[in-house]
Amino acid sequence: MGVSSLSLALALTAVIPTDGGAVPSASAGVSTADAIVAADPEFAAPTPIVGLSLEETRQQVAETEVALRVIVLQKQNDDRALAGAKRAVSELRDETLVIADNTVKSAIANYRQTDLDGGLFVSEDLNDGLRANTLGDAAIVADTRAFDDYRDKAKDLQLAEVNLSAEVDENDELSARVAALQEQLEQEQSWLAEIEERELQRAAQQYSATESRWAQARGNKQGFYLLTCPVDGEHEFIDSWGFPRSGGRQHKGVDMLADVGTPIVSPVDGQVEFRSNQVGGRSFHLTADNGNYFYGTHLSAYGDSEGRVRAGQIIGYVGEDGNAAGIPHLHFEIHPGGRGNPLNPFQDTAAVCDGAQY
Fold first, then answer.
1. Domain limits at 150?
2. pLDDT at 10
3. Which residues pair with 302 in a beta bridge?
4. Mapping DSSP to helix (H, G, I), strand (E, B) and coil, where does residue 4 land?
5. Quick check: 282 and 301 in contact, CB under 8 A?
6. Could you tell me if 82 and 197 lie in one domain?
7. For the purposes of burial, counting CB atoms within 10 Å of the CB of 42, is it exposed (0-12), middle (13-18) or buried (19 or more)?
8. Looking at 179, 205, 231, which one is the last position of a domain?
9. Model pTM?
10. Is there a single domain that holds both residue 160 and residue 279?
11. Count of other CB atoms within 10 angstroms of residue 182
12. Strand 299-302 and strand 314-318: pairing?
């Protein structure tokens, strides 16, 4: 009858993996991760993001961080799915082995119960092929259903292992993408750190140069915020910080008395804006390059134009606008670090001006 069904069952049983190990990859000798990176330029080692501004580089790093978080989450989900698939294949493998074992045992038991010569099972004079054929015939006659169940289960196992192999490859691809994005992010973060360091060095050099100009402007006097006196002409002022003002207010600046039309100059390098208000009338708002804010009001007129100014450039003229009550003067304020944080400007103004009265 040829090779018996039992022989085929025994042969199939022998090739079912029993160690529960990983399903072998189709590309033996080369890792899937290496193959993915080599084949797909998107996941090749990135080059530093040269040519982008500091803000653009920060944006690029932020986008890469988001992309990495997304792919890591996808990889974690895929890891769980892959673990479930491996457990399912392992269970199916165990079920197939049990059915194969039961099929063999059933064949032997049914053979022993037949009227065939019992010596056929143990005789050393008969060849193994005849014994296997006889056992196979007995299995087919006695337990065809068990053998059909085994063949169906073996086909299910074979299909499940093929699918698992594909899932392993997909998981390896995700691992390669995670590794590539991690490498890209590390390089971008390194490049961002270099750009930020250069910006800090540039700012430090600029600040040092400005500090030097301040030191030259104030000589041996104590002062910090001003490069030059804001009133370019004869003037005088006292320390009037905290003096009471109308409406329960307190004085938050220094009043520099001078004739109407005396030039007012920018005390620092920065950006100036001109605006008017009900209390002070014509006013200037000056923001220094280092972020400090200066306010002056009661002007009789503005300078030539708003925008970028250098220390010593005319930005207005002393007047008696607003609630100056007929007394021409410049009300002058200093806000270190930005508007809303005024300090007593007397000492710093006195450091660069000649009209301080003690």
1. 5-205
2. 41
3. 316
4. coil
5. yes
6. yes
7. exposed
8. 205
9. 0.42
10. no
11. 14
12. antiparallel
CB atoms within 10 A of CB 76: 12
CA distance 334 to 242: 14
Q: Which residue has the tokens 């399912």?
A: 88
Burial class of residue 136, CB neighbours in 10 A (0-12, 13-18, 19+):
buried
Specify whether the CB–CB gap between 254 and 349 falls below 8 A.
Answer: yes
pLDDT tens digits, 115-157 = 444 444 444 544 555 555 555 555 555 557 767 777 888 888 8
Q: 261: Cβ–Cβ under 8 A, 6 or more apart, which residues?
A: 300, 301, 317, 318, 319
Distance CA 289, CA 146 (A): 89
264 and 192 within one domain: no
Tally of domains within the chain: 2
Q: Which helix (H) or strand (E) holds 332?
A: strand 329-335
> CA 221 to CA 225: how far, in whole Å?
12
Distance (Å, whole) CA 296 – CA 274: 10
CA-nearest of 347, 263, 273, 351 to 312 is 263
Residue 22's pLDDT is what?
A: 43
Contacts 24+ apart (CB under 8 A), 196-202: 196/54, 199/54
Distance (Å, whole) CA 5 – CA 10: 9
